[in-house]
Task: inverse folding
């Protein structure tokens, strides 16, 4: 449905970018970062948006002028800046002549402190119109709001948030993008649909709403969610986990899951296709072996565990994760254990949250895990604060001695229209594997289209002030009953 040109420095001026600041590796150059951003844009758009990396010194720079979106990254040399300025001016002139402003977008990110007056749809910062202020329902006002939101997302310098910003533009001004198509917010863009949704909420979930708004904690969560775009999974998930309670769960369960007031939908992403680990310890992968890898080092699992298990109180600890919304939380513990009936597993992640109001608390989830057709692949499902999530997990790689494992996951929360991708590097104690192993691990991650600079190192220090404040993690909260009754 459209194209993006990612304009990066000429090869002789390429330099380390600001991406990957929380990763276990050195930051990528702007060109290397852009190559991965192009893949991420393809993933988020289901292949419908094509991104091309180009430099001012390339023989063919036609995409700079012809693409729907032009995003310049890290240009600072006089020659590159001159090319950037000329390109922005030409695009602005062309759009005016063709009267196609609503199909264009251009941004300069980290280009020497000058943003070169971005354009988002009909909004042109270099030629502002009062209509953007007096008519908040208009396309130009929508473009102005989106310009601010996109700039904030670009400035965070993560691949997920960068791709999200691009998707928001295409969804608003080109064509619907399932990744961000649905919104549970009250917005000018929805128009009269807002009133319809509010009426449905009151008539179908009135008692739940009343109870939530009468509770200080639940009301604070709703207020905080009203101040953000809930399609921003980083901001929305941190808000929810900061205030989670039974009242909030019931509120979400009624409005979102049971009645789907906002008519959202979402399916598990199919791009990228990630190939599961095919052999382990010289044997062809089987469902029993894959199950044993998941169980990892957890004590008390009997014959379901593999030889080499350390019999710990966790299966694995997350060392690094590749999803900016879900993998930045500290103290991430994973428990995989057999269900009492059948060959399924339970999965209990127990992780620490530094809440919006600076408290340290433990959060926990309880997933049902079922085998998928190919050994090494699984289907996960969970009710998370009143919303069901459905996930497809893949074992991408694992050391024969169970010293590390790499998982990839793709998921969807249908009731809120959210889709997501991620990857995890896990070890028994949550520390990075030895340096000699890392290059092999990075190649495993790259096979899942994850670059090591996209990872976020997890703080698993149980002596930190946050861990001490939170107290001991409730690791057996679900296991003490689930392994017996289901």
Result:
């Amino acid at each position: 449905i459209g194209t993006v040109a990612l304009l990066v420095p000429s090869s002789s001026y390429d330099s380390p970018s600001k991406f990957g600041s929380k990763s276990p590796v050195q930051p990528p150059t702007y060109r290397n970062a852009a190559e991965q951003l192009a893949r991420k844009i393809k993933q988020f758009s289901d292949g419908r948006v094509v991104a091309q990396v180009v430099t001012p010194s390339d023989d063919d720079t036609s995409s700079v002028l012809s693409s729907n979106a032009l995003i310049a990254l890290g240009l600072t040399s006089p020659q590159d800046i001159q090319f950037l300025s000329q390109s922005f001016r030409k695009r602005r002139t062309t759009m005016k002549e063709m009267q196609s402003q609503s199909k264009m977008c251009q941004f300069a990110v980290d280009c020497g402190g000058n943003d070169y007056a971005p354009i988002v749809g009909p909004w042109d910062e270099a030629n502002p119109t009062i209509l953007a202020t007096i008519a908040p329902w208009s396309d130009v006002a929508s473009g102005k709001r989106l310009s601010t939101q996109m700039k904030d997302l670009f400035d965070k310098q993560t691949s997920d948030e960068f791709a999200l910003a691009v998707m928001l533009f295409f969804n608003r001004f080109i064509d619907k993008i399932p990744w961000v198509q649905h919104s549970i917010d009250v917005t000018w863009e929805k128009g009269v649909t807002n009133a319809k949704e509010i009426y449905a909420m009151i008539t179908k979930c009135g008692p739940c709403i009343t109870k939530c708004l009468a509770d200080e904690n639940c009301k604070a969560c709703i207020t905080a969610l009203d101040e953000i775009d809930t399609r921003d999974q980083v901001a929305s998930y941190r808000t929810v986990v900061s205030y989670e309670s039974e009242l909030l769960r019931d509120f979400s369960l009624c409005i979102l899951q049971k009645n789907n007031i906002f008519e959202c939908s979402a399916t598990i992403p199919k791009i990228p296709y990630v190939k599961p680990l095919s052999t382990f310890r010289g044997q062809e992968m089987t469902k029993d072996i894959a199950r044993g890898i998941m169980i990892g080092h957890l004590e008390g699992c009997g014959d379901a565990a593999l030889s080499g298990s350390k019999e710990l109180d966790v299966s694995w600890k997350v060392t690094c994760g590749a999803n900016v919304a879900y993998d930045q939380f500290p103290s991430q513990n994973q428990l995989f254990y057999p269900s009492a009936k059948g060959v399924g597993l339970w999965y209990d992640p127990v992780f620490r949250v530094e809440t919006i109001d600076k408290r340290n608390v433990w959060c926990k989830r309880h997933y049902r895990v079922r085998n998928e057709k190919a050994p090494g692949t699984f289907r996960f499902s969970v009710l998370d604060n009143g919303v069901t999530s459905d996930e497809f997990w893949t074992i991408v790689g694992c050391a024969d001695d169970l010293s590390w494992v790499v998982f990839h996951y793709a998921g969807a929360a249908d009731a809120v229209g959210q889709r997501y991708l991620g990857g995890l590097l896990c070890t028994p104690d949550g520390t990075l594997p030895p340096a000699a192993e890392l290059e092999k691990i990075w190649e495993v991650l790259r096979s899942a289209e994850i670059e090591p600079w996209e990872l976020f190192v997890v703080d698993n220090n149980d002596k930190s002030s946050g861990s001490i404040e939170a107290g001991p993690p409730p690791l057996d909260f679900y296991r003490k009953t689930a392994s017996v009754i289901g």
Observations:
- The longest strand covers residues 387-398.
- The CA atoms of residues 3 and 50 lie 5 Å apart.
